[in-house]
Amino acid sequence: MSSSDLEKPAHDTHLGPEGSQAPLKADSLPDDPEAFPPAPDAGLRAWLVALGAACTTFACLGLTNSFGVLQSYYTTILLPDIPPSSIAWIGSLTAFLQFLFGFLAGPLFDRFGAAVIIRPAAIAYVLSLFLLSLCTQYWHFMLQAVLSGLSMAMLQFPAFGAVSQYFDKNRAAALGTVLAGSSIGGIVFPIALSKMLNGTSLGFAWSIRIMGFVVVPFMLFACFTIQARLPPRKTEFFLPSAFREAQFLLLILALALAFLGMMTPLFFLPTYALSRGMDATLAGYLTAILNGASTVGRVVPGVLADRYGKLNVFALGSLGTGVVVFCMNNATSTAGLVVYAVAFGFTSGTIISGATSAFSICTEDARKVGTYMGMGLALGSVAALIGPPVNGAMVEKYGGFFEVSVFSGVMCLAGGLVAFGSKAATKKGLFGRV
After folding, report:
1. For the packed helices 402-422 and 310-326, what is the interaxial angle rounded to 10 degrees?
2. Which residue in 314, 303, 300, 348 sits closest to 422, CA to CA?
3. In terms of Cα–Cα distance, which of 258, 266, 253 is closest to 413?
4. First to last CA, the chain
5. pTM, to two decimals
6. pLDDT in tens, the chain (434 residues)
7. Cβ-contact 178, 54 below 8 angstroms
8. Facing residues of 21 across strands?
9. What secondary structure does DSSP assign to 194-245, as a single string?
10. Most exposed: 12, 209, 322, 425, by fewest CB within 10 Å?
11. What is the CA radius of gyration of the chain?
12. CA 196 to CA 199: how far, in whole Å?
């Protein structure tokens, strides 16, 4: 096939509604990524993929971002004899595994496409929620966290990879929109869970089952809309050469430091609010308020990132989050806690969306983006595993939140500085728009 053939649609099946590109057949294109038709960056098919991906983040990250409500409920009602630091391991293990298994999910998507991974993962994720409703002992929750984390990874990373194939110039904005689904889920689930757990007689089991039923239609929509645009790559499963790239390694370190710091309010803000005398139901709503502000903090910086540089926005978001985390112990009134939740939600929203789009610029081959994202986020997520338990241990030791807010703020600031440093490894240099 000549280059001129690639500049015009060779088959009508390559064009979807509104001129958007349908998925390309593996035997219709050469292996050279520069010969592929450019990403449409718009059109019905592209936005259906993005909407399906948003459904996965709504159901997965949305529930993960709601763990602050469960942390408070487990500590006071369900597992009162278990230390807060041990309970934090439940949520941190889930958050860690949903990124760690990206090591597998990203390459699997690049090699086999989305459908063969997402559909069984959707079934496993819904099953994990119904199994959660049956948990009564600490080890039950830990086992459930493993299944939940694995299924989340197999849902989210193919979704991120597929969106990256349909968007190029507007990739950060599209990924920010996708991750805004997690913020919307982070509004719906905490409010619903807090109300059902603290304001009704439903109890824990049925409250979780209702969440499982809510998730089902979103999983169905994702299963039938998310698909790859490009044919799978045929190179090695993992890409070990990525670990010889300074930019990639610095981004992993930046994300790990930012994760280590940003988890404190996500996990402990409701518990901190209770220590300041706030009503339990209202304290649970703080997580929803935080995630509501995070919606804006993921979409707006995503639009700015496409214009002013993905690394710039990621780094500034980490620095801003560090400043806000420093101030956590100074929010003492109900009004102050609400304002704090809004401020933290907006700044921290740039970290996940910013890191995801930042990893996507480490390669020019869109068929490798899933693997780069999977490997990078997997290694960076180690901090999500150790951060909340360390924070919980500090709260237990010092009997307050001042020390943990200082520690977490410093970690976010360090992550932002390393992210800026990663620009030095790019072609445009430290002061370039990257």
Report:
1. 170
2. 314
3. 258
4. 34
5. 0.72
6. 343 343 333 333 344 444 445 555 544 444 555 556 777 877 888 989 999 999 999 998 888 877 878 887 888 888 888 887 788 888 878 878 888 888 888 888 878 777 778 999 999 999 999 999 999 899 999 999 999 999 999 998 889 888 888 988 888 788 888 888 887 887 888 888 888 988 888 889 999 999 999 999 999 999 999 988 887 777 666 778 888 888 888 999 998 999 888 888 877 888 888 888 888 778 877 877 887 888 887 777 777 777 878 888 888 889 999 999 999 888 888 889 999 999 998 888 888 778 877 887 877 776 777 788 788 888 887 887 787 778 888 888 888 888 889 999 999 999 999 988 887 776 666 655 66
7. yes
8. 15
9. HHHHHHSS-HHHHHHHHHHHHHHHHHHHHHHH---SSPPP-S-SS-GGGGG-
10. 12
11. 21
12. 6
∠ CA(374), CA(291), CA(300), 5° rounding? Answer: 75
Q: For the chain, list the domains and their CATH numbers.
A: 40-228+238-425 (1.20.1250.20)
Q: Give the whole-angstrom CA distance, residue 359 versus residue 253.
A: 12
Rounded CA-CA distance 301/57 in Å is 18
Tokens of 256: 């790990």
Amino acid found at 370: G
